[in-house]
Amino acid sequence: MLLLxxxxxxxxxxxxxxxxxxxxxxxxxxDLSHHYSDxxxxxxxxSLKLLYRFFTIPGIGNLAGGLPNxxxxxxxxxxxxxxxxxxxxxxxxxxxxxxxxxxxxxSVKVPSDGSKTAFHVVVPHDADTPDLxxxxxxxxxxxxxxxxxxxxxxxxxxxxxxxxxxxxxxxRGGAEVALTVGSTDGFSKVLDVFTNIWVEEKNDxxxxxxxxxxxxxxPSAMNQALPRGVQICPVEMDDxxxxxxxxxxxxxxxxxxxxAKGKRPHLLYTVSMGHNPTSAVxxxxxxxxxxxxxxxxxxxxxxxDPYWYLQFPSAEIEEAKSRNMPLPxxxxxxxxxxxSGYPFLDSLVPSFLNIDVDGRVVRLDTFSKTVAPGCRLGxxxxxxxxxxxxxxxxxxxxxxxxxxxxAMIAENIMGPQPEAVAAFMSRSRKDQATFxxxxxxxxxxxxxxxxxxxxxxxxEMCNLLEENAYQLKQSTPVRDADSxxxxxxxxxLYDFKxxxxxxxxxxxxxxxxxxxxxxxxxxxxxxxxxxxxxxxMVFLTHKPHLVLASPGMMFSASPEIAARQGxxxxxxxxxxxxxxxxxxxxxxxxxxxxxxxxxxxxxxxxALLEEAGTFEAEEAEVLTSMGC
Amino acid sequence: MLLLxxxxxxxxxxxxxxxxxxxxxxxxxxDLSHHYSDxxxxxxxxSLKLLYRFFTIPGIGNLAGGLPNxxxxxxxxxxxxxxxxxxxxxxxxxxxxxxxxxxxxxSVKVPSDGSKTAFHVVVPHDADTPDLxxxxxxxxxxxxxxxxxxxxxxxxxxxxxxxxxxxxxxxRGGAEVALTVGSTDGFSKVLDVFTNIWVEEKNDxxxxxxxxxxxxxxPSAMNQALPRGVQICPVEMDDxxxxxxxxxxxxxxxxxxxxAKGKRPHLLYTVSMGHNPTSAVxxxxxxxxxxxxxxxxxxxxxxxDPYWYLQFPSAEIEEAKSRNMPLPxxxxxxxxxxxSGYPFLDSLVPSFLNIDVDGRVVRLDTFSKTVAPGCRLGxxxxxxxxxxxxxxxxxxxxxxxxxxxxAMIAENIMGPQPEAVAAFMSRSRKDQATFxxxxxxxxxxxxxxxxxxxxxxxxEMCNLLEENAYQLKQSTPVRDADSxxxxxxxxxLYDFKxxxxxxxxxxxxxxxxxxxxxxxxxxxxxxxxxxxxxxxMVFLTHKPHLVLASPGMMFSASPEIAARQGxxxxxxxxxxxxxxxxxxxxxxxxxxxxxxxxxxxxxxxxALLEEAGTFEAEEAEVLTSMGC
Lengths: 628, 628
Fold this sequence. Notes:
Chains A, B: Residues 210-418 form the Aminotransferase class I/classII large domain. Chains A, B: Pfam families: Aminotran_1_2 (PF00155). Chains A, B: Keywords: Aminotransferase, Pyridoxal phosphate, Transferase. Chains A, B: This is Aminotransferase class I/classII large domain-containing protein. Chains A, B: Its cofactor is pyridoxal 5'-phosphate. 2 copies of one chain form a homodimer. In chain A, helix 15 (439-467) runs parallel beside helix 18 and helix 16 (529-540) crosses helix 19 (602-624). Among the domains of chain A are: 18-54 and 172-311 and 348-399, Aspartate Aminotransferase, domain 2; 468-624, Aspartate Aminotransferase, domain 1, CATH 3.90.1150. By secondary structure, chain A is an alpha/beta fold. Helices cover 32% and strands 13% of the residues of chain A. The first copy, chain A, is built from 19 helices and 19 strands. Mean pLDDT of chain A is 89; it is low at 1-18, 100-107 and 622-628. Chain A starts with 19 loop residues before the first helix and ends with a helix. Chain A has helices at residues 20-24, 38-42, 52-55, 138-141, 151-165, 183-194, 219-225, 250-255, 284-296, 314-322, 343-346, 384-395, 403-414, 418-425, 439-467, 529-540, 559-564, 579-596, 602-624; strands at residues 61-62, 75-83, 118-123, 176-180, 210-214, 231-235, 237-238, 241-242, 267-270, 300-304, 361-366, 378-382, 470-474, 488-492, 494-496, 504-509, 547-548, 550-551, 569-573. In chain A, the strands form 5 sheets. A 7-stranded mixed sheet of chain A has the order 4-12-11-10-9-5-6, with helices on both faces. In chain A, strands 15-16-19-18 form a 4-stranded antiparallel sheet, with helices on one face. At the A-B interface, helix 2, helix 3, strand 1, strand 2 and helix 6 of A face helix 2, helix 3, strand 1, strand 2 and helix 6 of B.
């Protein structure tokens, strides 16, 4: 594993009080190897590593490796036009507060001219520096490398992770990182390390592994676990995320576990910052409660946080304003002692890693939402021992992530290489020396800018949805009453919490108030919530609404939850569409629901259900595959 | 799965006689699903796919997906300076023949000036074409996509594979492709699809899966299979690759299988073109024999061929010349009816796919040796059904390969996009319109150029090794003899076949002729071949030799083979080092062996063995993990 001294990390602003001595009094992480899968225990180091110690003999001619010659790579450079970090406008870390950015900026976007906010990045074929953590060139980035990752990039990520993201890791030596090809790959490797495959016809039920998830969860995670025979164990959640206590909460599930149903779960999966699909952000207090339970029952916490930097401090205030509620007091999300020194980062709720005394937290990070999904680049943060096990999985599978993306991102953040400037100078003097590399300051500024963009979109969507949340209805005037005018009734059609983070809005539709709820269909069936929900989804895709919303059924952790609650929810993403479409669709969704409440003929509803039929059949196939 | 019509493939030169009618009379591939693993059978399509049918409604506002906005990707372009396909000089397809390239070129390299042989490649942020198979831009390449791969690249690879590489696939509809993040990933996915995990303490021995490999094989493949409990079953090989018949040959192993040792193998792994480590190229005739046996015993053939285009027709002739043997007759490697129309491709020995009547061949390809290992990009070619199973593994793991490399390679081969030219024009008029894209013609020319470079290196190394293969020794003059001069004896120290393909030279060292072979060590032990082999490896890393060679032990498919034969071999790579080092090291290796033969003191040998000690201990750990 690559080890660096902290002087390599010139942008670090970490509190210097954590000296080596202070680290030595910290406890070591616990030995959690009893959770390893059979395959993990059987994995050995790569046999080619036997020769590594000879590679460093000065002047050695290495005929042992099986490498092609870097001279024959067709690319002489890799280059890009890349955004300056200032391209997008941030929102305040403390809305209404006195930080540098005024509260008004929460809703005002400074228009930017892309062409003026770009610079040219060049990765040269060869960089001369002998320091592998600074050497960004194609001869190394496009050659075979170790599964731990490209040294310049992995050294940067490691220090950013240790010093900026999680400066409070409580165990001795701190956390390590292992690169992945994105967080889907990361979770796949975590499952490989921590679960055995279980087959109903072949294995004892008491050996069946189990995965704790929120009752509404990211379906891909379930799709990864289910073919391995892993049992999905839903844990109740409220508006603030997974519930530690109460009926169906984490403690309840673990304390009352029935061994006849499978092994008590030792793995928990959650999206803890901008939860997918519910948008909840787990507070530090909630984290402490959940962690205590996991520690008591020896559960490993897998924290999958692609949206971590998308926390929206304005949501609570804007929600209150729009609903004429009293404005809430500002509460700092991070009250832990050590800070990164970057106000944006320090304003965010901290990861479980920062309270991980035992070393039982495995965090998944990705560049998918901070740069682009097409990177297929991410990393796991955990104890050095767990990271080593993840890297062994990479050695026999993905190897390291693509050198194309590793080199481009390393150069973009850490650049420029003197060789890159020289290579580019010879072609285009105009742009030479315009690129100084983002450095950590620029990287953090980029993230803050993206947060600003997505926070404004979130606020826009919520404001527009609020406008159509109620059905106003004038009852028919009653003769002989005091007035000719009927009473205006106000029916709440849907409800939502303004997202505190992430990319999604989780809308609960009150189908029980729909005129056809409980009506009798043409075949004598009773129209229920699930039927109305399916009908609405299809109805919304019709003109003039033309909006596709994700049905809550898809995120339900079991068929029971889908049947009990899932049908009443829709997930709306405020990230993917253009600004204009985002606004239009927010209005179209609201109008669509209003219009759906005017569907009063059973035949019209049944036509929609018929159209939904195909969808339902496909859905059944997915749901039955859950089998829990 | 992406389906294309052949008009998309403008460079195709395929024999047009394969009409649809001709395809319809071909047999369908066999159903091989009885070989699928439990996990493979349990995998379902991604649940998010349920919504795909709504995505295409015109004007639909998609709030259902969970995508970030492409506007917020920091990269406005991706660019590169890339080689023109003509940069490297090919060697003749038929040495001594009358093809366009003269035989003399087999050993003459035309020096090239890199700067004059480069052009500028630009991938724009947005390309306007609605044809997804032609749309190469960052808005799509860096966005989430389907695990089957980036449409422009996968459509290109698919047609190149079907029409140029394997035009003779005998089953109806032909082969499909599934992208991987390189062939290590490819084989990992193949193991996932075709083997259950087996644990000695838990599972019945009769359920143990097995993998047929050559007695000398690529160690990473074994490292991938072993932790899953897969039994490694070595098959004898000769100079021409895996042996179909004879003791220990494929038929023998399968016909005399003992079920008490595990399940009869249904999976075979081999590097069939430029075998790693032995450099053998399986002839079409040998392939037919092996295939017949696999068909009889229902074995799936995994053909891992990173070196496929590195076949060296000059090796046989140059070998004969250097040894004063009669020159061999030229024999065409590919006598199958359908051709690609590209003489270089048609001169190569064809893949097993071209005789795969049953659909039991799974071929692994990679860009690691044709572009660069850092691509982490490759593909599986197999029946559509098997490819679908591979793609399902990708869906819950790697997803698709990195968009950075997919876009760059697509643009480099298929480009340019009009939008790319426009974007680049605005910055650097000088280089505008210099890039026309390699197209298939350029891609094939690039491969032929690389083959030329590596073939020349191979010939150089072999020639230099020949010079030191013999020890010439003048015996002490014997008094009273007819002459004052002793007899000159010629001892062959090492032997090798000139590589017919790949990147490796497989040298057999005749340790049994070493002066200390059979001598008694200081602790009464007898000095044997394995001891001399270890000592030589270490000796060669000392000054002035300074050469590192891979010991044959590392490639031995079992501890028995390592003990019986492995120690007598070394693998030398003629690809990785510079031209100059390649020559120097070839001489240094020869001189080193010569010098090693002059080690006559047991103490000197034992000092080398002591130095090898650490290595041996590490090796033991790897070998015991094989446990078969």
